[in-house]
Design goal:
The radius of gyration is 18 Å and the shape is globular. About 40% of the residues lie in helices and about 20% in strands. It contains eight helices and seven strands. It has a seven-stranded mixed β-sheet with strand order 3-2-1-4-5-7-6, with helices on both faces. It starts with a helix and ends with a strand. Strand 2, helix 4 and strand 3 form a beta-alpha-beta unit. With about 240 residues, it is an alpha/beta fold.
Amino acid sequence: MKFYLKKAYFYYHRQMFFPGWLAILVNPFYFARKGLLSGIQELAPKLSGRLLDVGCGTKPYETLFSVTEYVGLDIDSEESRKRSIADHLYDGKKFPFADESFDSILCNQVLEHVFNPGEFMSEILRVLKPGGKLLLTVPFVWDEHEQPFDYARYSSFGLHDLLEKHGFKIVKYKKLGADISIVFQLVNTYLFKILQGIPRSLNIFMTITFMAFINLAGLLAARLLPDNPDLFLDHIVLAEKIR
């Protein structure tokens, strides 16, 4: 029994980050995670050599990268120590690596939790080799999360300016979820938050009924209605170190 429960949990967890058709029924963040997966899959081949995953969490996208070494770095906290997935922990200021230690860096949905973005970008620049690539994702429209450590949202102009001021050239930039599906994603995000306090069985019922219906409606609406490039869920950027 435990084996099947463990297998079911593994499959459920995978649907959270690698959403397939089943995720329409079980993933309240379907549109956001689907967009991130698609964007990272497209740009992952651009990263090579020794890769540093900054703010790695559970390293959900590690399998997408064909690199010589995949190193996870996370903030030193009780949660990250308990998780025991990160290869290195840091104090929130200085990365525990020598200058120009990495060929590539992944920073996925982390920058909004950084209160000192200038210092943070300087550290990314410092440990990246000349010509090295940075793959960065960060939300634009999203609820406050991981409170109280949620500090910022960036416009496309602000994000470009931050990267260029800290020694990076933008190679490719894309807005993810820039269509009507953003509205349906926000409805599900709202429902997810307000349902957190209810019994688990009722929460599951609400997810596979109301939230699944909203996901399906969002898929249909996105096919019928035009995109809106000014309203979107996430940024994804591929940048290159130039100094």
